[in-house]
Amino acid sequence: MDGIGSAMRSQRLIACLQLLQGERRLTARYLSEQLEISMRTVYRDVEALCEAGVPIHMERGPLGGIVLADGYRRALAQFTNEELQSLFVAGSGPMADLGIGSHREALRKLAGALPTQQRQNAKAMRERLLLDHTRWGRGEQPTALLVQLRRAVDAQRRVRLEYRDRNGSITDRLVDPLGLVAKAGVWYLIAAEAAKGFRTFRAQRIIAVTTLAQSFSRPPDFDLEAYWNSSVESIERQAGAGYNVILRVRADGLHALRLYWESAVIEQDADSATLRITFPSRGTAVAEILTFEHVIDIVSPPDLVDAVVAYAEAAVRKYRRAAARPAAP
After folding, report:
1. Which end of the chain is more exposed for a tag (fewer CB within 10 A), N or C?
2. How many angstroms separate the CA atoms of 244 and 13, rounded?
């Protein structure tokens, strides 16, 4: 019980300091109301802060109060408006996918420690500018798996993945998780796999994660941001040499198609979306369109329609002949 009481008192002292960092002088009554404690407790806390070396003192008189030395408050007061904007308008959506829900609380604490004018500016920024990091139709992110992977990354614990690739094949992968990356709200695991080097796994294709007792050492020269930027550049170069198509996809088929293929939304409504997708080749595009034919209409290029028709007619001829053969005894 003493440990719990000590922890609660420590948190209260920190909260008291944060309030005093926002204003040069506060009354004991104001602090007691904000911290929901008695004024007697406020005075005891001020005394404890003094004993801990914090430059805090009492000023008497009608305009008196509890004062924190200016030098102790100076660091927070030196934020520019642009710096505050970069902090307070940063969306917290991707962090929530990882099970980290403390973003808003952290900003509240920071705002409480700002001088009055900067606190008002920060509030105004949040009311006027919002960053939404998620793209349209991104699908549900596997939050439970992402939380498990984040913990494995932090603890440098090896994991076993059950993974479905873009062709639907399911494999078992033993990997060292090095980092997690969110691109437009879609999460990827960057990991090292024995004999295969660094690999990128789309989180939505991970079926199951098992965290092992075995630990691993991070490669000393591995830079997550540099690796990801290099991967993105490589993918974009390949996409430039691929086969570009524009498809109209019914709403009930969007998640399944976008689970396997990166796409750009051209327009979207409640019933469907027009997507631009770069396939590795025209043959791949034909195969995928036939797979999803019940929810897809081809917008362009026109010759893709002819290719799909030719492929389908060849398949019909082949299997019609097979169906006409007498059954084996």
Report:
1. C
2. 60
**Among 273, 265, 284, CA closest to 249:** 273
| pLDDT tens figures, 143-155 | 889 989 999 999 9
Measure Cα distances from 236 to 174, 180, 218, 248, 275 in Å. Answer: 28, 20, 28, 23, 17
Can you give the pTM of this predicted structure?
0.50
Please check whether residue 55 is in contact with residue 68, taking contact to mean a CB–CB distance below 8 angstroms: yes
Architecture of domain 242-321: 2-Layer Sandwich (3.30)
pLDDT digits (tens, 9 = 90+) for 256-270: 888 778 888 898 888
Question: Under CATH, which architecture does the 1-78 domain have?
Answer: Orthogonal Bundle (1.10)
Rounded CA-CA distance 209/196 in Å is: 19
Contact 192, 198 (CB under 8 A): yes
